[in-house]
Design goal:
Elements lengths: L6 H11 L3 H14 L4 H19 L3 H15 L5 E2 L2 E2 H17 L2 H4 L24
Antiparallel strand pairs: 1-2
Length: about 130
Amino acid sequence: MNEEMPDEFWQGVEQFNTGEYYACHDTLEALWIEATEPDKTFYQGILQIAVAFYHLGNKNLRGAVILLGEGSNRLRRYPSEYGGIDVDELLIQSAALLKALQLTEPEKIAALNLGQDEGLPLPRIIRVNNENT
């Protein structure tokens, strides 16, 4: 497992959790470009989920579903807790949103209030209590 995550990672987590998905993507992409495995794929999974929410905010259901699935598939390779976050919880929340999106008719996506509709709760990244974080 990795050591302590860089400050930029935690900045990206904060951006993710406050709905600044495009900024989160940019922050984590900068880390991803320079990273080595296993952190490289970890960053990519989170930034793909962030971009999925960005697409969803722009009513791009197809792009949101594709990237939400791809990002989740990348994160499934990691243990329950990795990099100081609760990976399992992020995956559970993302799977629930993906299922809800798949059941939503595309023409109804425009009427949804991202993050405010109870049927489409947006996942948050949960930090785990760890002596390294």
